[in-house]
Backbone:
């Protein structure tokens, strides 16, 4: 059964529809990537899971129970709009936020110390937020999201603003949390994050779900049956029909030249392709070329933007931003 | 419920540790002390002692003058003055002497047969009104007596003829009459109103700024995801109220300490009477004078204070003090949640601050007629009742009026919390929208 279960949730604001009949499931221990263009309704969805706003219709279930105030203890949240009290000491802020999540003072103190050590920020306890850089503040907020050891961790653009060292630290922590049974929901525009981390993915566009599923399955679904073959030496003669000629081919300069070729080919022809190049050259590399999420995103969102009639949210108004512009 | 106290605790502890709080806690009593002390000191400096040499050849009038408030009279011996030169002082020039010693010379002709006197006062600079009035009244008084005596009246009889009326005021009650003390009541009412006004403005707007800060720094999103808006708002209001009360207590303690210290230094005396013992300078042996209330007047005042209906004033004052603050703080919180920055809050603050200012201004008229219809209506309307009712309390307010006014204030508070809660819920997550009254109305009534 899904750990986080969102059942046909809709939400409208006065002059624009944020979400229309959105459903999605995240299994326990899964990492869900929440994708979508700006203004698609991701933030609205995240705010609903955090009980900041309520859906107009539909319901959200966590671990078999409909979402209620008691779930504040089990959810950790890193909002996109990062905010701390400027004049308050880091340690005190963390204790305060943890206590609002439902930790006792003693537990909160212990957790704060643990996570500040883990994120290499032990010396920050008495610093005020205004003394820290943006990336440093983000680490503080990350600790605030992790301190109460939540079962569901919701992170809005967690990697933006981190240097590569901290980004790797964060990635390790997230994988570690996942191994410990935490379910993650990550909203992001960075497709590497999705390919790196996410087990599941959902793409929201114009208030509705455009695609969803396990990451690998989605990539296969969008597969164009492309394969890439690298051979040693100059290009060999192209394979005979019905095998396709390479759609692109590049050769590096001598000595030790390598020819890289891409083919658009049905999977049943792949053994023959390999045969052909084994006979005429030496294969160094063979792989199926799955589309990147960059491509998938643009394909899913781009066709819709061209006025595709299969859009699930045809009645949705243009985004709030354009509303503001034309008002 | 628990979270209200967590929020209130943060508000309290972070605020009392802040530099502004510490500075204000120390500066407050000092400023207040200065406020009280400055007029006293000004009066004192104004009393810079002036010596008046009295030249009274007849010797009949010179004992009419008594040293008081820094004005010293020194009677010149007979024959010291001749042709504009002090014989005694080595032929010194009088003008030079007057200027050097900041003194005046009062020359009195001998009274004629009708006891009329020609008097002239010489000084280096034109004489001030204070000096001339004093001299005139002393002379008039003395000549009046001399004339009475000439008519054959005994000086004791003259003294006994002097009339001094002090108007006493009383309240006609069913049980008979009770003494009322209008001036004390006014003083008390005004003090209480000032306190209310300050508390509502200082700490009510602190609630507003707190909400704006959380909104602007975007902490709000994290807070709202863990805590109900109502809990956040109430926690903030309660926490800041405790900060205010704590500061008042600190001020009271520090103020008492300072005034005790000042009293010990001999600069001031009992609280409530602004009195300064004037120091004496100059050559003449003059007894120190003071303009403090006579001891019996002080005792009177204490007695009048003791007669005030404290048992009704204090609990009702506390009720209106807290009730008024809570009511306004909820409104201030609503304003804070509706705007992005303090600058934007001006427009929305107007409908809140106007009634407070109005009630404070009106309280002066209420004091003059504490049972009139202005007083009645303004103590019923919850926006003005906290300040106005507190002004009326020392004058005595009928029970049913109190009950109705308190009921209305509580009802208004509930409505204000509901209203503020609604605006707060929506407002705290709205960024970058210019909030107008129209938009606020929509937030209020939108589903």
Residues:
């Amino acid at each position: 059964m899904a750990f986080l279960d969102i059942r046909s949730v809709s939400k409208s604001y006065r002059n624009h529809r944020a979400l229309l009949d959105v459903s999605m499931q995240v299994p326990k221990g899964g990492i869900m990537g929440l994708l979508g263009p700006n203004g698609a309704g991701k933030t609205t969805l995240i705010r609903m899971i955090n009980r900041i706003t309520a859906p107009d219709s539909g319901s959200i279930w966590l671990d078999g129970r409909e979402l209620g105030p008691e779930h504040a203890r089990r959810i950790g949240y890193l909002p996109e709009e990062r905010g701390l009290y400027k004049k308050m000491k880091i340690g005190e802020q963390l204790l305060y936020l943890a206590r609002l999540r439902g930790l006792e003072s003693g537990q909160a103190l212990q957790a704060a110390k643990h996570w500040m050590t883990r994120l290499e920020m032990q010396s920050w306890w008495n610093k005020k937020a205004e003394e820290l850089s943006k990336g440093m503040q983000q680490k503080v907020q990350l600790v605030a999201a992790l301190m109460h050891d939540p079962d569901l961790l919701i992170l809005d653009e967690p990697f933006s603003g981190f240097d590569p060292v901290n980004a790797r630290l964060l990635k390790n922590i997230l994988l570690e949390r996942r191994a410990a049974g935490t379910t993650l929901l990550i909203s992001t525009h960075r497709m590497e994050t999705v390919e790196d981390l996410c087990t599941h993915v959902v793409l929201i566009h114009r208030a509705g779900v455009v695609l969803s599923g396990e990451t690998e399955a989605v990539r296969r679904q969008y597969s164009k049956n492309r394969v890439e073959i690298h051979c040693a030496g100059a290009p060999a003669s192209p394979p005979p029909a019905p095998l396709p000629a390479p759609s692109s081919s590049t050769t590096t300069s001598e000595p030790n030249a390598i020819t890289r070729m891409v083919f658009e080919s049905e999977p049943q022809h792949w053994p023959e392709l390999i045969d052909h190049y084994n006979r005429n050259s030496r294969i160094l590399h063979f792989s199926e070329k799955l589309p990147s999420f960059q491509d998938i995103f643009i394909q899913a969102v781009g066709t819709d933007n061209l006025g595709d009639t299969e859009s699930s949210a045809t009645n949705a108004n243009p985004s709030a931003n354009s509303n503001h512009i034309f008002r | 419920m628990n979270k209200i106290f967590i929020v209130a605790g943060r508000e309290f502890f972070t605020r009392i540790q802040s530099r502004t709080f510490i500075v204000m806690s120390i500066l407050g009593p000092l400023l207040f002390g200065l406020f009280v002390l400055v007029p006293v000191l000004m009066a004192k400096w104004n009393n810079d002692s002036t010596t008046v040499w009295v030249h009274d050849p007849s010797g009949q009038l010179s004992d009419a003058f008594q040293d008081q408030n820094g004005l010293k009279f020194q009677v010149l011996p007979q024959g010291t003055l001749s042709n504009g030169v002090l014989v005694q002082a080595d032929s010194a020039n009088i003008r030079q002497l007057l200027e050097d010693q900041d003194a005046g010379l009062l020359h009195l002709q001998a009274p004629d047969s009708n006891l009329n006197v020609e008097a002239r006062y010489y000084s280096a600079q034109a004489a001030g009104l204070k000096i001339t009035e004093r001299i005139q009244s002393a002379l008039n008084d003395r000549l009046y007596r001399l004339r009475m005596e000439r008519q054959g009246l005994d000086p004791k009889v003259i003294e006994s003829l002097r009339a001094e009326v002090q108007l006493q005021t009383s309240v006609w009650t069913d049980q008979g009459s009770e003494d009322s003390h209008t001036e004390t009541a006014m003083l008390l009412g005004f003090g209480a109103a000032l306190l209310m006004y300050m508390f509502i403005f200082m700490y009510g707007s602190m609630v507003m700024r707190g909400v704006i800060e959380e909104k602007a720094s975007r902490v709000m999103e994290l807070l709202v995801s863990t805590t109900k808006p109502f809990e956040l708002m109430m926690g903030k209001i309660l926490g800041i109220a405790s900060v205010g009360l704590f500061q008042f207590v600190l001020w009271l303690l520090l103020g008492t300490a300072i005034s005790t210290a000042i009293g010990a230094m001999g600069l001031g005396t009992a609280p409530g009477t602004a009195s300064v013992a004037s120091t004496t300078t100059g050559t003449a042996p003059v007894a120190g004078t003071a303009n403090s209330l006579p001891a019996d007047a002080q005792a009177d005042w204490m007695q009048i204070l003791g007669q005030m209906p404290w048992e009704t004033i204090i609990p009702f004052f506390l009720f209106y003090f807290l009730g008024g603050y809570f009511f306004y703080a909820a409104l201030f919180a609503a304003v804070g949640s509706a705007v992005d920055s303090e600058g934007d809050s001006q427009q929305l603050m107007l409908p809140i601050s106007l009634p407070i200012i109005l009630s404070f201004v009106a309280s002066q008229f209420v004091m003059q007629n504490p049972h009139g219809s202005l007083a009645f209506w303004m103590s019923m309307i919850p926006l003005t009742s906290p300040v106005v009712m507190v002004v009326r309390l020392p004058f005595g307010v009928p029970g049913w009026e109190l009950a109705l006014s308190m009921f209305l204030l509580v009802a208004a508070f509930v409505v204000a919390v509901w209203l503020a809660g609604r605006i707060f819920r929506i407002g705290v997550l709205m960024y970058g929208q210019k909030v107008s009254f129209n938009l606020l109305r929509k937030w209020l009534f939108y589903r």
About this structure: Chain A has ten helices and 14 strands. Confidence is low (pLDDT under 50) at residues 306-327 of chain A. Residues 164-179 of chain A form the longest helix (16 residues).
